[in-house]
Write a structure and sequence with these properties.
By secondary structure, this protein is α/β, with parallel strands linked by helices. The chain contains 10 helices and 5 strands. Keywords: DNA-binding, Phosphoprotein, Transcription, Transcription regulation.
């Protein structure tokens, strides 16, 4: 298997250096570049096409959320996934990061092993969205005074069941147990939902489920 390529975007050079040392000393991971602001992060993603970008929220010139949106939506042809990192554990950041297209959200005080695991999980196409983060995301969405409910796409009854459980933060194993399905079957359904709904990952499936009222 080829190495997972990682780009770093943070306005603190010392923090970038620490992350780079960790990544460069982890077999299977390679740091392909650093950016000191959001605009540089977008340019770096366009140039290097990394598998994963570790993105700070508060940066000059362009915020991390705006840069994430540009990478995940404006440059949708890129294979790049974004993990948003911040020192601020605020609901608005969790919600904003996922809305922008991020595949994960972590605090900067994350342990090294947890960060490495997060990079590998997101690079593999999964969402780094714990049940706790999912509940906060749902709460933030439901608190919007004028949230828009979009028409629900065509789905089978079983696909709706799986999507509803994904939206509640259930893992594939938990979905399999609850619906009495095999793990392989659940993975097939999740993959089908991703393709049918045009979602990048499970985090986007959660958003779609709530925007269409399927929860």
């Amino acid at each position: 298997m080829s190495d997972i390529t990682v780009a770093l975007a943070d306005d603190q050079a010392l923090l970038r250096a620490g992350f780079r040392i960790l990544i460069d000393h982890t077999p299977g991971l390679v740091c392909v570049g650093e950016a000191g602001n959001g605009r540089e992060a977008v340019e770096l993603a366009r140039r290097e096409r990394p598998d994963v970008v570790l993105m700070d929220v508060r940066m000059p010139e362009m915020s991390g959320l705006d840069a994430t949106r540009e990478i995940c939506q404006g440059l949708a042809e890129l294979p790049t996934k974004v993990i948003v990192l911040t020192t601020f554990d605020l609901d608005e950041y969790v919600f904003g990061a996922i809305r922008a297209g991020a595949s994960g959200f972590l605090l900067k005080e994350v342990l090294p092993d947890e960060l490495i695991r997060a990079i590998k999980v997101v690079a593999a196409g999964e969402a780094l969205l714990t049940p706790a983060a999912t509940r906060r995301l749902i709460s933030a969405y439901m608190a919007q005074p004028e949230r828009q409910v979009n028409p629900a796409p065509e789905m089978t009854a079983r696909e709706r069941d799986v999507l509803a459980l994904v939206a509640r933060g259930r893992s594939n194993e938990e979905i399999a147990n609850e619906l009495h399905l095999s793990m392989g079957t659940v993975k097939t359904y999740v993959g089908r939902l991703l393709a049918k709904l045009g979602a990048r990952d499970r985090a986007q499936l959660v958003m779609i489920a709530y925007e269409t009222g399927l929860r």
